[in-house]
Write a structure and sequence with these properties.
Rossmann fold; 28 helices; alpha/beta; about 50% helix; 4 domains
Length: about 675
C-alpha cells in the first residue's frame, strides 16, 4: 500500500467517512505489505474518531491482534479490555484477553476471564458453541499447567459434553486422569467409554498406559495422520533426495522445545559442549517457551547457529531448515508437548532422526532412524519400530557439570524418619498405574520398617494415593511427599533415600540418572517397549546389572530383600556407583558424543549409497483397531509370557474378516497363507 493511500485513509477517517469494512481492508493491505505499524496507527486514529460507533469493539479487537503480533503485549491487553467494556459478551476478546494475561504471568486472571466468558453465554448458536469450547479448552490447559487438575478435568468434561469427538480434548482429559492417578482412566458409566478414550489417547500417554509396543507403534501412526495430514507433506522444502556434500562439514540440526530448564535440556546440554566443531556444523531450532536460563545459555554459547522458530509456521520453518542445507535433522521432541511434527512431515532434510525426547517409535513415513542402544532396543525388537534402529553404548546423554548445592540436607528437615528404610520414586504421577501402586504396597508389606518417598503431586492426588494405601492395608503415613525444588536442591536430597523403586511401563529416565549420579541405586523391571526399558539401560550402564529385574515378582522380591536382609549388598552397590561415576558408560558424555557422531557419518554414507531406510507402516490401522479394543486396565499386558502369540491370535481373527498382508512384524507369511489357501478352496 502506498504512503499516499495510507494518508488518504487517514483523511477519510478524520472525516468519519471510512466505514469499518474499508478500515479492515486497508489495514490488511498495510500488514500484508510489511507495514503493521501503519496499520496499527490507522486503527488507533479510527478508534479515536469513532468513539460512538456500535462496532467499535471489533476495531479494538483487530488492533489488539496487530499489537500482540508486534510484541506490544500491554497495548494489546488494553485494547481487549476496552473492547469488552463496550461489549462484555464478545467472546473472541474474552478468549484473547485471558491468553494475554497468561502470557504476562497472570494465569489466574486469565482463567477468570475465560470463566466469565462461559457464564455470559446464553444463546445456543454455532459461534457460541465454538467460543465456549475454546474458552473451556483454554481454562483446562492453564489449570493443568498450574496442577489444578481436578478443575481442569471438570472443564474438559463440559467440553466433551458439547462434542465427544474432539481429539485434543480427549487427549487432555485422559492425561489429566492419569496425572491424578485416577484409575480406571475412563470412569465407569461415564459418557466417554474406555475404547473411545483409548482410541484418542496421545502417544506419550500411551507409553505410560500399557507396555504394548504394537499398540504404541500404531497409536503413533494414527496420531501422525491426524497431526500432519498428507496434504501438508509435499512442499517446496522437501529435500528427501538431496545429496549431501561429502567434502564439507556435516550439518546437523536439532529441533526441540526443551533446550532450556527442562529434563531434556539437562540431559543434552553437555552433548552440545562436546560436539566436534571441526567436522560438524551444529544448528539448533528452538520451538519452546520464551526463556533465558543457565541451561539455555550454555547451549547457546556453543551452538553458533541458533534459530528461534516458536512463532514461525511449519512451512516457513521447514524452508529455513532447507535453506540452511541441513543434512541430518534430529527430532528431540517426538510426540511430546510443543513438538513440531509438521516440520518433519515436509522433509526439509534428506535424513530425519528420532532421538531422546520421546521414548518410543514415531510411526511416521518421514523419520528414517531411531537412536537406541543394545538394551533399550535389543536385537529382535526391530519390528516394534517404524524407524531403522541405530545404537549407542547408552542411548541417554548426561550432564557431567550438574550443579548441586553444597549444604547436605537432613532426613528430619525433609520429613523423613532417621530409623526407617526409605524407598523413593520421584517419577511423575502419570507413570503410576494401579499395577505399579499394587507392587509398591506389596513391597511395603514385605518391608514393614520402611517408608515410600514420592513427589508432592498435589493435595488431591496425594490424598488419593494415601487412601489407596489404606485400602491395601498400609498405614497412609508411610507415604511421604517431597515438595518440588529447584534442581540443585532437588539433586542434593537424593542421598537421603536408600533405594529408588521404578514405575512400569514408563520408567525413570532423567530421574534414574539423577539418582545414580547422586549415588542412590535404582531397582527396575524391564519390559518390552522403549519407555519400559530405558531405566534398565541406565542401571546397566551405571554398572548395576543385578538391579534390572525380568519380572514383576522378581522386582518385588528384590526390593524386599535389599531393604531387609541384604543391607550390606545395598551398601556395596552404593559404593560401586561412587567408584564408577567417572568411568561408566552412563556418564561418559565424551564417548556418547563420539559414538553419535559416528552414527551421523554412517547415516551420510548410507544416504549417499541411495539406501536411506523407508519406514514400514503396513497393517498399522489394523493393529490400532485391535489394540484399542483390549482392556489394558483389566490385566497388565507387560506380564504376558507369549505377547506375540497373544497378538497373533487377535490378528488371525481380524484376518478372517478382512485379509491382512504379511507385514514383517507379528503377522507373517506363514500365518496368512493357510487362511488364504482355505478361502481359495472354499471358493473353488
Amino acid at each position: 500500500m502506498s504512503n499516499a493511500a495510507f494518508l488518504a485513509a487517514i483523511e477519510k477517517t478524520t472525516q468519519k467517512a471510512l466505514p469499518l469494512d474499508q478500515l479492515i481492508n486497508e489495514t490488511q493491505k498495510l500488514s500484508g505489505t510489511g507495514d503493521p505499524a501503519l496499520a496499527r496507527q490507522l486503527y488507533q486514529v479510527w478508534i479515536s474518531f469513532n468513539a460512538d460507533h456500535p462496532l467499535l469493539f471489533i476495531a479494538r479487537f483487530n488492533c489488539s491482534t496487530l499489537m500482540q503480533a508486534m510484541g506490544d503485549e500491554a497495548g494489546a491487553e488494553a485494547e481487549l479490555t476496552a473492547a469488552l467494556a463496550q461489549n462484555p459478551d464478545f467472546a473472541p476478546a474474552r478468549i484473547n484477553l485471558g491468553t494475554a494475561m497468561e502470557r504476562r504471568g497472570r494465569a489466574g486472571d486469565g482463567v477468570e476471564q475465560w470463566r466469565q466468558g462461559i457464564e455470559r453465554m446464553a444463546a445456543v448458536t454455532g459461534d457460541a458453541i465454538n467460543y465456549k469450547t475454546t474458552l473451556l479448552k483454554q481454562m483446562a490447559r492453564v489449570l493443568s499447567d498450574g496442577q489444578q487438575l481436578d478443575a481442569a478435568e471438570i472443564a474438559l468434561i463440559q467440553c466433551l459434553d458439547i462434542s465427544i469427538d474432539q481429539r485434543d480434548v480427549c487427549e487432555q482429559y485422559a492425561a489429566a486422569r492419569l496425572a491424578q492417578c485416577k484409575w480406571p482412566m475412563a470412569p465407569e458409566g461415564g459418557k466417554v467409554t474406555r475404547k473411545h478414550l483409548l482410541s484418542r489417547l496421545h502417544p506419550l500417554s500411551m507409553c505410560a498406559f500399557s507396555d504394548d509396543p504394537m499398540l504404541q507403534l500404531s497409536s503413533g501412526y494414527r496420531y501422525v495422520n491426524h497431526a500432519a495430514p498428507l496434504e501438508t507433506r509435499l512442499t517446496r522444502a522437501d529435500r528427501r533426495d538431496a545429496q549431501m556434500d561429502p567434502k564439507r562439514k556435516l550439518r546437523i540440526g536439532y529441533v526441540s522445545s526443551d533446550l532450556r530448564h527442562h529434563a531434556v535440556g539437562y540431559l543434552i546440554v553437555n552433548l552440545f559442549e562436546e560436539h566436534d566443531l571441526e567436522e560438524f556444523d551444529i544448528y539448533a531450532y528452538y520451538c519452546g517457551i520464551p526463556t533465558s536460563d543457565p541451561i539455555q545459555d550454555r547451549i547457546k554459547s556453543c551452538v553458533a547457529n541458533w534459530r528461534d522458530i516458536r512463532n514461525v509456521s511449519d512451512d516457513a520453518a521447514a524452508a529455513m531448515i532447507a535453506e540452511d542445507e541441513i543434512d541430518i535433522l534430529i527430532d528431540v521432541n517426538g510426540h511430546t508437548r510443543d513438538a513440531r511434527i509438521g516440520i518433519f512431515a515436509r522433509h526439509p532434510a534428506p535424513v530425519q532422526v528420532n532421538w531422546l525426547g520421546y521414548p518410543g517409535t514415531m510411526g511416521t513415513p518421514f523419520h528414517h532412524y531411531l537412536v537406541g542402544d543394545n538394551f533399550v532396543t535389543p536385537e529382535g525388537s526391530e519390528h516394534y519400530y517404524s524407524e531403522n534402529i541405530l545404537r549407542l553404548p547408552c542411548y541417554q546423554p548426561n550432564d557431567r557439570n550438574r550443579i548441586v548445592v553444597e549444604d547436605k540436607p537432613t532426613r528430619a528437615a525433609n520429613g523423613l524418619p532417621d530409623d526407617k528404610f526409605v524407598f523413593c520414586c520421584f517419577n511423575a504421577a502419570h507413570k503410576i498405574t494401579r499395577f505399579v501402586f499394587a507392587r509398591w504396597m506389596e513391597i511395603l508389606k514385605g518391608s514393614p520398617d520402611s517408608v515410600l518417598w514420592l513427589l508432592d503431586y498435589n493435595a488431591d492426588t496425594n490424598q488419593r494415593l494415601r487412601e489407596r494405601a489404606a485400602e491395601a492395608g498400609i498405614d497412609p503415613a508411610r507415604l511421604i511427599f517431597a515438595p518440588k525444588l529447584q534442581n540443585a536442591y532437588h539433586l542434593a536430597r537424593y542421598p537421603l533415600a536408600d533405594l529408588v523403586i521404578d514405575t512400569a511401563p514408563y520408567g525413570a529416565h532423567t530421574t534414574a540418572s539423577d539418582a545414580m549420579w547422586m549415588g542412590v541405586p535404582v531397582l527396575t523391571w524391564a519390559g518390552r517397549s522403549f519407555a519400559a526399558r530405558v531405566c534398565g539401560s541406565l542401571v546397566r550402564s551405571a554398572g548395576l546389572p543385578e538391579l534390572v529385574c525380568d519380572s514383576a515378582d522378581a522386582f518385588i522380591a528384590k526390593a524386599i530383600a535389599l531393604s531387609t536382609g541384604e543391607r550390606l549388598t545395598l551398601a556395596a552397590l552404593r559404593q560401586r556407583l561412587a567408584d564408577n561415576r567417572d568411568t561408566c558408560a552412563l556418564f561418559d558424555i565424551a564417548r556418547l558424543t563420539r559414538s553419535l557422531e559416528d552414527l551421523y557419518r554412517q547415516m551420510r554414507a548410507t544416504h549417499l549409497a541411495g539406501l536411506t531406510p523407508k519406514p514400514n507402516l503396513t497393517n498399522l490401522d489394523a493393529y490400532f483397531d485391535i489394540g484399542v479394543a483390549i482392556d489394558h486396565e483389566a490385566r497388565e499386558i507387560g506380564q504376558l509370557t507369549d505377547y506375540e502369540g497373544f497378538w497373533r491370535d487377535l490378528l488371525a481373527k481380524r484376518h478372517m474378516a478382512l485379509p491382512l498382508p504379511a507385514d514383517g512384524r507379528i503377522w507373517r507369511e506363514e500365518d496368512a497363507a493357510p487362511m488364504v489357501k482355505a478361502k481359495l478352496t472354499r471358493a473353488a
